[in-house]
Design goal:
The complex is a heterodimer. By secondary structure, chain A is α/β, with parallel strands linked by helices. Chain A contains 9 helices and 12 strands. In chain A, helix 5 runs parallel beside helix 6. In chain B, helix 3 (85-99) packs antiparallel against helix 4 and helix 3 runs antiparallel to helix 6 (160-170). Classes of the chains: A alpha/beta, B mainly alpha.
Amino acid sequence: MTLIIRKLGFTHARQPILDGIDATFEAGKLTVILGPNGAGKSTLLACLAGLLKPDAGTASLHDADITSMAPTARARQIGLLPQGAETHWAITSMALVALGRIPHMRGAGTSTDDRRAISAAMSATATEGFAYRPVTQLSGGERARVLLARVLAGEPDWILADEPLANLDPGFQLDILNLLRRQVEAGKGVVAVLHDLHHAVRFADHLVLLHEGRLFAQGSVEDVITPANLAHVYGIDANLFKDEEGSVQLFIKGKVRS
Amino acid sequence: MNARALTSLLLLLTLAAFLLSLMAGKVWIWPTSWAADNADGWIFLELRLPRALLGLCIGAVLGLSGAVLQGYLRNPLADPTVLGVSASAALGGVVAIYVGLNLLPFGLFACAMLGAGFSILLLLAISRGGGSVGFILGGMVLSTLAGALTAFVISIAPNPFAANEIINWLMGALTDRLMADVGTALPFMALGVALLLSTGRALDALTLGENGAKSLGINLSRLQWIIVLGVGLAVGASVAVSGVVGFVGLIVPHLIRAIYGEQPSTILLPSALGGAILTLTADSLVRLVPGPGEVRLGIAMAVLGAPFFLLLLLRYRKGAA
């Protein structure tokens, strides 16, 4: 069960956004895509989700080309948590979570499968308490959990999350990361775009580091988060160390002096 | 009250408004004389029945189109005029009156539908793959252009009577329409309504934004096609038979949302019913105003609708603060 991209390229308005990216994403692993602003992280995720059609190379799921899959079939296998936590109407949390069942729905109304998946997703994210509150009245942390529950309700094998921690306080950030971790332990493939290197170090099984539209490094935390890579890509002076409990942590000293 | 009970209530109200529209006027015609072989029976069959049927259809079309467009654009200020379809259909109608084609059977209707059809094609070309921003801008450009050309045609009208006739038609009314008008407009409206009613699930998905909807397998370019065609046919046909009746498409979805909640798919059918109730009631009221002639429906709707909408906004803002 792998998502594979080969020589992936994407061009927008004659500007190359992604160029020659090769990467493999495995089920049962949390892959974190890192890179500075404008490195092409969101574009890569959009290609994986089938929202953008690459100009070169391929993105495939179990040997099937993602962009040529039927949209509903693709949506049943790949769930996307888009950037920005958009919720446009004041519908209830439960109605929002139910949107995740759209790729499974035929005809009108919800089936027993739909209702089971919706309540499972809401209990996994501890959102039942505000099932009947409008999403517009929820706090940022509550809404983030409801939006994640929406993705889980579709029961996809793959969960792609584009900056799922943006605008959340540290406690809520950890809530979301733990929820994603639990999905990984249940055997799903999770690919998340993150900005926080500390979280990436603590939660990722596999890292993909992008720089100016190219793959700069990929592999384990120790392979990718090296002082040389961080200095080159982010211009920061940082290194990994083991804390007193023996877990690997990141320490950022400051900007690299040039 | 649950949604089903509410919708049954709306259906009953629609029926009541329809019956009111059949009876009300300078002459009240009670159901006992509907089938009578006298002046009352004649007024009923030739004037009241087509007028009530048109009110029902046009109101439903405008309410539904407003609900679909507000859902699609995720903007509660959208209404059927934003696409420029109404303005283009109106231009077609005005040109027909100017050159005298309105004297031919269906001449005005055909010209107005041609205007609407032209605007549909242009909109699809302008906004292809452009998302909702290109769509709105395209609609605005069309609206402005059609409005300017309409003003131009009025300004070159050969005599004051022609100008007057054009302006009168533009203001929107259901007076003196025939069963033949209903029969011509109905197929276009029915097709448009069927297309629009099929968009519910895609509109729900758009609650999550365009990327969210796409990731759920929704084909947004197909949705845009369906909406342009649906609104174009339905609203184009309604402008072609009745001129431009404003405000229904803007106001009704708001009222319905206050009752049913904001889920876009839930408010489609109720918005159609609400549009029909509002239009039928307003069209009955304009006939009851004393004095010679009657207030044009388009004017009455704006005069009644604008303050009402302001009140709604003030209450809404108080609630939000």
